[in-house]
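Study this protein:
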Amino acid sequence: MKQIDYIIVGGGFAGFFLAHQLQKENRSFVIFNGRQISGSYISAGVCNPVILKRFSTFWKSKEQMDYLETIFSEIESYTGKNYIIHEPVARIFHDEAEKKQWLKNSKKEDLKSFLDNDFITLESVENPLESGVVKNSCRIDVENFFKDMFQYFDAKGVLINESFDHNLVDFDNSTYKDLQFKHIVFCEGIHTKDNPYFDTIPILPNKGHCLEVKIDRAIDPYIIKKKHFLFSLSEDRFYYGGTYDRFDQTSDINSEFVQELETGLQAFYKGNYSINKVRTAFRATVDDRRPILGTHPEFKNLHIFNGLGARGVLNGTYFSKVMCDYLEKDLDLDPEVDVKRFYE
């Protein structure tokens, strides 16, 4: 019987960022990575402190952005790579009213460090009303982040590439198969619905589609945003997406959303393009737009870290530290993220 401190269930942003935090604490753990496709794997990885529909910000945006460089510098110490790509978001304006609203909001205390009041003209796409730049925004190299993290934890012998069977947990002896554990942390995304201990937690699956496209010219070195995000993955591979759909619960590609993406791209990119791949997966969202952290009300060694939503990188990096401090240092959780809010 192998003794470990933690079983982490889930190999998306939540699971890997939490594993990083526990590694810093010199805790032993294994990561169960099932065969389901996590929404983390196809995400844009955009780290953006501004809500681009109304040019506002969100809860703890500054704290999350401030912590981003720290955690990726720590990860770089063992993967040898820093996955942050310092390309800011450039938001194409739809009309003059948006430009005025941007300038007005740029004077607000919580937004003046994010909204650049010097507009730019992008050369590679149509933006006749110019574009606004979100200062300090960036994205991470999602593809290489997951590839390298899988390789790193696999080489350490802590990655278990099989689905976790909740029915095999023995609470009397704190064992799962040949593992004796102190804690289990469930980072399962939308698959929480299949977890008999947390299946009443209101995780809402939000289906997203994105495209990998080949286009015939280089684009400006920004994360270009009109309706969706466009940015370069490599010399001739580009990301465009993603969509939001709370109704379709199948894993099938929906042609209507593919058409929405094509229409959105054609609205500002007038060159030739071809679609290399269409990808779809589910984000784990919550109605109150807060992640879910904490402990089961009855089983005190079962915990949840979930609900990262569309801001998977920002929520995952910042709140993995919060979750680790809660587990390891007995620090209190903010009631806004504590899972207790669904039990009281």
In short: The first helix runs from residue 13 to 24. DSSP finds six helices and 18 strands in the chain. Residues 2-44+143-203+287-342 form a domain with the FAD/NAD(P)-binding domain fold (CATH 3.50.50.60).
